[in-house]
């Protein structure tokens, strides 16, 4: 195991390997920036800005202010959540190539959001009660100053209705943030859910 693999716990793809998002249907348009070097110190201004971006985003998602959330995404966003599979330790992969719970660009994400405003959004009418818990944030520089790679862990609590049991989704995320004239925006998100079989009834919400 290389130092990079050990630093990442062996769970996320190496920068010099084919990342799952590179094999996605919509991944051909995705930005290809990768991390450079060790994690930034927690008192680095770039880390603090990235951390604030994630927390502000979580509040938007909790409040289901999805139109405002779309404004925090770049036009070439790739939003990807591969299907996890259980494999032997030496297999070298733990996602299923070509299969994803989410494989989205800006247009498809905007169509999902637009559907919430229609009378056909039965999965979110009445809306869920959501809480996105974000932790374990680490930030990495890229080969240019306009991008950052940000790792985080997320626990989503979702409750809907009065009788159904609440659901939890645990995942790790690898984000690419881009500095624009409007501040930092999300240019790529890869979500590594911690279950191979999701127990949530549907994925009509965002992680």
Automatic annotation (TrEMBL):
Keyword Oxidoreductase found: yes
SUPFAM superfamilies xref list: NTF2-like
Keyword tags: Dioxygenase, Oxidoreductase
Superkingdom of origin organism: Bacteria
Gene3D superfamilies xref list: 3.10.450.50
One GO MF term: dioxygenase activity
A Gene Ontology biological process term: 3-phenylpropionate catabolic process
One Pfam family of this chain: Ring_hydroxyl_B
Family label: Belongs to the bacterial ring-hydroxylating dioxygenase beta subunit family.
PANTHER family: 3-PHENYLPROPIONATE_CINNAMIC ACID DIOXYGENASE SUBUNIT BETA (PTHR41534:SF2), BLR3401 PROTEIN (PTHR41534)
Name the record gives this protein: Hypothetical biphenyl dioxygenase beta subunit
Species assigned in the record: Mycolicibacter hiberniae
Lineage: Bacteria, Bacillati, Actinomycetota, Actinomycetes, Mycobacteriales
């Amino acid at each position: 195991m290389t130092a990079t693999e050990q630093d990442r716990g062996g769970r996320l793809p190496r920068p010099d390997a084919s990342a799952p998002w590179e094999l996605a249907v919509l991944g051909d348009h995705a930005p290809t920036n990768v991390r450079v070097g060790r994690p930034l110190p927690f008192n680095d201004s770039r880390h603090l800005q990235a951390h604030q971006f994630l927390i502000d985003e979580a509040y938007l998602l909790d409040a289901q202010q999805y139109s405002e959330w779309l404004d925090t995404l770049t036009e070439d966003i790739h939003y990807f959540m591969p299907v996890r599979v259980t494999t032997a330790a030496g297999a070298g992969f733990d996602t299923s190539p070509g299969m994803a719970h989410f494989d989205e660009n800006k247009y498809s994400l905007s169509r999902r959001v637009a559907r919430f405003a229609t009378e056909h959004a039965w999965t979110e009418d009445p809306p869920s009660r959501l809480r996105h818990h974000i932790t374990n944030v680490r930030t990495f520089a890229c080969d240019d100053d306009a991008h950052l790679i940000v790792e985080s862990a997320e626990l989503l609590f979702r409750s809907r209705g009065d009788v159904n049991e609440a659901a939890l989704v645990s995942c790790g995320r690898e984000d690419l943030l881009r500095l624009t004239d409007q501040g930092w925006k999300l240019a790529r998100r890869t979500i590594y859910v911690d279950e191979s079989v999701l127990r949530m009834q549907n994925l009509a919400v965002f992680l």
